[in-house]
Amino acid sequence: MIIVMEKGATARQVKAVKERIRALGYRPHVIRGETRQVIGAVGDERGKAKLQDLQSLPGVDSVVPILKPYKLASREIKAEKSIVEVGKDVRFGGHKVVVIAGPCSVESEEQIIETAYAVKEAGASMLRGGAFKPRTSPYSFQGMAEEGLKLLAKARKRTGLPIVTEVLNPKDLPLVKKYADMIQVGARNIQNFSLLRLLGKAGHPVLLKRGMATTIDEFLFSAEYILSEGNDDVVLCERGLRTFETATRNTLDLSAVPVLRQKTHLPVIVDPSHAAGLWSYVPALSYAAVAAGADGIMVEVHPHPESAESDGPQSLKPDVFAAMMEKLRAFARVADRDL
Ligand code: PEP
Ligand code: MN
């Protein structure tokens, strides 16, 4: 249910409504709109009728059901786009298209520092790099774990770029939280509901990657798990689906961008690297993502892709990345955005 407050509702009235929602066994989520506040009451749907009584509380304008099955992620509860801030300077969902770049995996100090400087120089505003890697084969490189997180922190210290890195296992969350500015949930964990719930309480912004076989509704339900635990800072990332096509690693579902835009207030970014599987397809898909209205892109960049421990074939060399960024600027302008 959405409890719509009157325009001039006082803080005390809002507090009283929140208390009543809790007393009825629901969790209140205050959402500040441009003109008035609304309070989402989420929880077990069976006692919905009782929430109607909130109508009589002072300061309440109306009580309306949220028709969409995902409540807090929907545009019904919040018409305007959400802004998710990371570090001091990065804002997903604002005027600027956010570019996250970096290697698939952190491999060495030299590799991550060199990449961080290069992507910063080219205009990226965040650094990526995996320290815990979800690999198809248990015999493939699994990441440097805490050592990798420390190297990411070092790269942040040197360049000032905030870092996003993946948490694979709920037990590693406290460790990843210590180092990361933003925590990535990989495609393979999209329906790891206990991990999603933990991230809802973690107090860090989350980059939620769509699974390779996840519908848009399922994707939004996964976001809802995080939001419903009290974390509003969720950025959605389309990264390609598994289809019958084998010419690319995955099929980039760019239609997800405008569809999500209509369904949710959350920022949406695109990862063309894992969709393409090959570096030479990445620039075109990046331009297309920005043209489709994405709030950002996440691109794999490696100084020596030929010797990368993971995803070398899809990684851009720094000079190719820099050239792509130049052209991306023009696409951003046409889309009424900035880089
Ligand atoms: C990654 O970003 O390195 C990654 C493993 O991506 P995905 O979860 O989308 O496969
Ligand atoms: Mn990768």
Topology diagram in text:
Blueprint: E1 2-5, H1 11-23, E2 27-32, E3 37-42, H2 48-51, E4 60-64, E5 84-86, E6 90-92, E7 98-102, H3 109-122, E8 126-128, H4 146-159, E9 163-166, H5 173-179, E10 182-185, H6 193-202, E11 206-209, H7 216-228, E12 234-238, H8 256-263, E13 268-270, H9 272-276, H10 282-291, E14 296-300, H11 318-334
Parallel strand pairs: 7-8, 7-14, 8-9, 9-10, 10-11, 11-12, 12-13, 13-14
Antiparallel strand pairs: 1-3, 1-4, 2-3, 5-6
Helix pairs in contact: 3-4, 3-11, 6-7, 10-11
Bound molecules: phosphoenolpyruvate and manganese (II) ion (MN).
Residues 104, 274, 300, 310-311 line the site of manganese (II) ion.
Please describe the structure with a list of short key phrases separated by commas or semicolons.
binds manganese (II) ion; 8-stranded parallel barrel; 4-stranded antiparallel sheet; Alpha-Beta Plaits; 34% helix; single chain; TIM Barrel; 2 domains; binds phosphoenolpyruvate; 14 strands; 339 residues; alpha/beta; 11 helices; elongated
Structural class: alpha/beta
Query: What's the overall average pLDDT, rounded?
Result: 96
The first-level CATH class name of the largest domain: Alpha Beta
Shape field: elongated
Can you tell me the residue ranges where pLDDT is under 50 for at least 5 consecutive residues? none
How many β strands by DSSP? Answer: 14
The molecules bound to the chains, other than polymers, are:
phosphoenolpyruvate, manganese (II) ion
End-to-end CA span:
38 Å
**CATH level 4 superfamily of the largest domain:** Aldolase class I
Using the coordinates shown, work out and report the CATH topology of the largest domain. TIM Barrel
DSSP strand content = 15-25%
Helices, by number, come to 11
Helix percent reads 25-40%
